[in-house]
Amino acid sequence: MMHPIDRTKLFTDVEAFCQEIRPHEELCYVEHRYNDQVIPLARKHDLLAIPVPVEYGGRGADTVTYARALVRIGREGTGVRTFFSGHTSIGEYPIATYGNEEQKRHYLPAAAHGECILAFGLTEPDAGSNPLEMTSTYSREGDHFRLDGVKYLISNGGICDAVVTFAYPRGDDGQKLPGSRISAFIVDRGAGFVSEDLTAKMGMPTSNTAMFEMSGCRVPVGNMLGEEGAGFRIAMGTLVSGRLSVASGCLGVIEDSLTECLTYARERHQHGKPIGKHQLVQEHLAAMEQARLVSDCVLMRAAEAKDAAQEAPTNADLRNRADMLAAQAKLFITNAAWDAVDRAVQIYGGRGWSTLYRVGRHLMDVRVCRIYEGTDEVLKLKIAAGLLGKEFEAYR
Ligand SMILES: Cc1cc2nc3c(=O)[nH]c(=O)nc-3n(C[C@H](O)[C@H](O)[C@H](O)COP(=O)(O)OP(=O)(O)OC[C@H]3O[C@@H](n4cnc5c(N)ncnc54)[C@H](O)[C@@H]3O)c2cc1C
After folding, report:
1. Which of 79, 124, 175, 296 is the most exposed place for a label (fewest CB within 10 A)?
2. Is this model's pTM higher than 0.85 or not?
3. Is 27 helix (H, G, I), strand (E, B) or coil?
């Protein structure tokens, strides 16, 4: 059953969360440590399942509304927004979209209440841009599956209680069965996976990134997500949601950088006047405003396409259109954000090149957005193949 969402209340809650998280985020960033207040504050303001249907404990937001919420959260930093991407956009989303009733009832309300933090584990040390090269495997052992493999660079991987992950069926030689297809699983931490935080990152010190090893993980047969062999379709469908979340967060980064720069350009004086009166500084501000405006339009177009596709789940044309627009939005807005924060740092001069200022932190963090959830290169190939036709897919 559809419940109308109270957008005013949602955005009030998002704003309250953002204001409360800011001092924690700034302190953690400077101290180079994980921000352990994101989850409690998100739980306090009921933001742990914004697009999840109300009957499963969420707030039932459509894609456009959720994107707007992530734009606001993105202003607080890519690390904060990345938590929501990992937990909600690529954690809750595949369970809500591809899970059966039992899986939804078991995981989603707990995720919404912060009792089950989620992650999405697709990438492996030797399988990034091409997940089909993964080597994780599973085999059936009575009422369980046995999962083995290593997942790498997983957002929330060290703090999650369960992960949506992927593996090939195992052949008699212990390797993936030739010609087989990937399946998806929901794996509880209690099933026996061991994670290790990855902290040698160029940015996002406040966000958790980890690798984890599944060595004989015992996963109940009821935790296979979707039908056997549907893992790749589930992963690619989930990435549409994930890409929109990254694009939304990057728009927030552009907005925040612009706000900061407008204040700074008015206050900072050089050569006898505010730097905002120097025409070359104005050129940076105009370019940032253009990036903000166009990114907003591109994001909304893509989010609307996703809503249209969700309303007609059997319509392949709408699904493909949503997929393509999410890829375009992600590619465009992550690059627009990278350019905008570079300009913002330039406007701040020497102070900009510092983690003590918001623009410097944005610069360090936003760079990864051109890598995760589909690199620039992979997205360009995808967009071109969408124009030329499937037979031109260069990444197969
Ligand atoms: C902070 C962080 C968080 C992450 N979070 C998650 C997560 O939550 N879950 C998850 O599953 N993964 C996550 N990732 C992994 C991320 O999705 C991968 O890093 C990304 O997909 C790229 O894979 P790779 O790093 O193995 O690079 P590679 O695939 O090795 O690519 C290296 C370079 O080669 C290029 N390249 C590869 N193939 C082609 C081709 N056919 N044509 C042209 N160029 C090509 C790439 O574009 C890239 O420039 C995260 C990564 C980071 C850094």
Report:
1. 175
2. yes
3. helix
Residues 132-162 have pLDDT tens digits of 999 999 999 999 999 999 999 999 999 999 9
By C-alpha distance, which of 347, 345, 346 is closest to 355? 345
CA-to-CA distance for 267 and 245, rounded, in angstroms? 33
The pLDDT of residue 395 is 74
- Give tens-digit pLDDT for 157-189: 999 999 999 999 999 999 999 999 999 999 999
Mutation choice for ligand 1 from 129, 136, 156, 383, CB with most ligand atoms inside 8 A: 129
Q: How many A from CA of 54 to the centre of ligand 1?
A: 34
* Rounded distance between C-alpha atoms, residue 210 and residue 156, angstroms: 7
86 neighbors 266 (Cβ within 8 angstroms): no
Percent of the chain having pLDDT more than 70?
99
For ligand 1, whether the C-beta of 128 sits within 6 Å is yes
| Residue positions annotated with a catalytic role | 373
Token readout for 364 is 């360090």
Q: Which residue intervals of the chain are DSSP H helices?
A: 7-30, 38-44, 63-74, 78-84, 93-98, 101-112, 231-267, 279-311, 316-348, 358-366, 376-388
pLDDT for 293-343, tens place per residue? 999 999 999 999 999 999 999 999 999 999 999 999 999 999 999 999 999
Domains of the chain, earliest start first: 7-117 (1.10.540.10), 120-225 (2.40.110.10), 231-392 (1.20.140.10)
- Per-residue pLDDT for 1 more than 70? no
Is the CB of 122 inside a 6 Å radius of any atom of ligand 1? Answer: yes
